[in-house]
Amino acid sequence: MGSNPQRFHVMFFPFMGHGHMIPTLDMANLLSSRGAKSTIVTTPLNSKILQKHIDTFKNLNPSLEMEIQILDFPCVQLGLPEGCENLDFLTLNNNDDREVMILKFFLSTSFFKDQLEKLLETTRPDCLIADMFFPWATKAAEKFNVPRVVFHGFGYFPLCFEYCIKLHKPHKRVASNCEPFVIPDLPGNIVMTQEQINDRDEGTEIGKFMMEVTESEVKSSGVVVNSFYELEPDYADFYKSVVAKRAWNIGPLSVLNRGFEEKAERGKKASVDEVECLKWLDSKEPNSVVYVSFGSVANFKNEQLIEIAAGLEASSKNFIWVVRKNKAGDNEEWLPEGMEERTKGRGMIIRGWAPQVLILDHQATGGFVTHCGWNSLLEGVAAGVPMVTWPVGAEQFYNEKLVTQVLRTGVTVEAKREVKGLGDRISRETVDKAVREVLAGEEAEERRKRAKNLAENANAAVEEGGSSFNDLNSFIEEFSS
Ligand code: AWU
Predict the structure, then answer these.
(1) Which residues line ligand 1 (CB under 6 A)?
(2) Looking at the domain assignment, is residue 261 inside a domain?
(3) Residue 343 lies in a domain
(4) Which of 43, 266, 377, 419 is most buried by its number of CB atoms within 10 A?
C-alpha cells in the first residue's frame, strides 16, 4: 500500500537499549493505530528485534503503517566490540571495563548525526521523537524545520526531581553522604541522601554529555512522557508549569498490548515457554506469587544473587526470579546448592529474559521485587501489583520515592546506593522479610487496595476520553502539518 503523503508522519529514534526501544515500539504502534505513519530509525541488529514486533502488530491490524529505517553503526571503527549495537551486549557480564565501554557506547551514538540529517532531508516527517541520549538531534532536525520532541523513557516525578536537584544542589550542602535532606521546591516533601543522587560532576565527560542533553531539551519542541496524569498529578503540573514549555503524557504504553502475542514477545524472545509459564501461574492462588526482576541492564555479582536465592527460599513464598545470565550451563556459583530442587513447585528461576507483562498481569502475581526502572514501575502500576523497591542506579532511587512516599504501594529494601562493594549487599534476611511483607504483611491489604485503584486509573487513562487519550489528541493536532 503506497504511503499517503498527507498522512501524519512521525519518526522515532530510540536509544539502543530495551528500556528505550520497548516503549518506543509501543508509541509507534499507538500513533499508527490513530492513523499516522510511524518510522522507527535504528541499526541493523536492532532492526531484527523491532521488525518481529512490527509484524505482530501488523498481523493484528493490517491497516497500520509502520516501517524501519536502518542507519550504519560501525562498532569496531567506533572502538566498540563487533556487534555491540545494544546496551544488552555490554551489560550481560560484569567485566572490568564495563562502565568505560558503556560510556563509549553512549557517546558513540553521535555518529548517527549526518545519517539522520540525510534521512530528515529526504523524508521530511511532521515530527521527530528522538531519545534524550541524542542531544544533537535537536539541531539536526532544525536544519530541515522538523520539530524535535524528546523522549526520556521515564516519568514526570524523576524529571522534576532531576530539575530541582540541578537547580538547588541540596546534596552539595550536607555534611555526609548519608545525611537525609528534603528536595527543595519538589512537591511532596521528598527526603533523599547524597549517595542516592545520580548527579554527574559537570567536569566529567558524562557530566558534559548530560548538560548537552538538558540544553537540547530546552531547545526542543517539547517532551512526550510515558505516564498518565492520575499517577503523578502534582509532578505533571509542576513539570508543565515550571520545567518544560510543553509535555504530553500518553501512557502507560504497555497497556495498549492486550493480546497474548503482544505481551509475550515484548523486548526479546523469552527464555521460557510463555504458555508453560502461564500454566504454572494458573496453578497458584491469587496474589500468592512474588515476581523478581531488575530490568534489562542491571547485573548483580554472584554474592548478591546468593543472598536473593537464600532469601526467596527462606520466605517459603511462591516466586518467579529472573536472573540475567546466559542459559543454564554457565558455572552457576550464584545458586546455592540444591536450592532449585528444594523450592521445586513453588519457585521458578528464569535465566535470561521473562515475559514480564504476561507475569505481572496474571492474578496469581501478588508482589513485584523491582529495581524501579520506569517501564517496570509503570507495568507494575498498570497490573495493580504492590512492589518491593530495590533501586540500582540511573534515576531508580528517585522512582523508588514515588512508589514508597507518594503512591504508598511499596516496601523498600533500603538499598543505600548503587551496589559498589560487598558491604552494600542486601542480606537474605532483608529479602525474606520484604517478600513476606509485600504479600501478607500488616499493611499489605491497604497497599494492594491503593495499587488496584491506580491500575483502574492507568487503564482508564488510555481509553477514549481518558487523560492520556486526550493528551495524545493534542499532540497529534500540534504536529500534524
Ligand atoms: P525498565 O525501565 O524496567 O528497566 P531497564 O531495562 O533498566 O531500562 C529507563 O529504562 C529507566 O528509566 C532506567 O531506570 C532503566 C532503563 N523486560 C522483560 O520483558 N523481561 C525481562 O526479563 C526484563 C525486562 C522488560 C520490562 C520493561 C523493560 C525494562 C527508561 O531502568 O517489561 O518493559 O524490559 O525496562
Answers:
(1) 18-19, 22, 153-154, 266-267, 293, 295-298, 322, 353-354, 356-357, 373-376, 379, 394-396
(2) no
(3) yes
(4) 377
Question: What is the CATH number for 356?
Answer: 3.40.50.2000
Q: Which residue from 287, 234, 227 is spatially nearest to 458, judged by alpha carbons?
A: 227
Out of 161, 253, 296, give the residue to mutate to test ligand 1, the one with the largest number of ligand atoms within 8 Å of its CB.
296
Global pTM reads 0.96
Same domain, 235 and 317: no
Atom 28, ligand 1: which residue's CA is nearest? 19
Residue 323 belongs to some domain of the structure: yes
Task: Assess whether pLDDT exceeds 50 at residue 228.
Answer: yes
State pLDDT tens for residues 187-207: 999 999 988 888 888 889 999
The set of cell numbers assigned to 55 is: 509484524
User: Tens digit of pLDDT for each residue in 32-74?
Assistant: 999 999 999 999 999 999 999 999 999 999 999 999 999 999 9
Write the DSSP assignment of 129-198 as a string of letters. Answer: EEETT-TTHHHHHHTTT--EEEE-SS-HHHHHHHHHHHHH-GGGG-SSTT--EE-TT-TT--EE-GGG--
CA distance linking residue 246 with residue 240, whole number of Å: 6
In a domain, 1, yes or no: no
Report CA(20)–ligand 1 centroid distance (Å). 8
Q: Say if residue 187 is in the same domain as residue 293.
A: no
Are 341 and 243 in a shared domain?
no
For residue 325, what are the domain limits?
267-458
pLDDT of residue 421 exceeding 80? no
Confidence grade of residue 1 (pLDDT, cut at 50, 70, 90): very low
Q: 207 with 134: CB under 8 angstroms?
A: no
**Do residue 299 and residue 153 come from a single domain?**
no
Structural domains in the chain (count): 2
Question: Amino acid identity, residue 193?
Answer: T
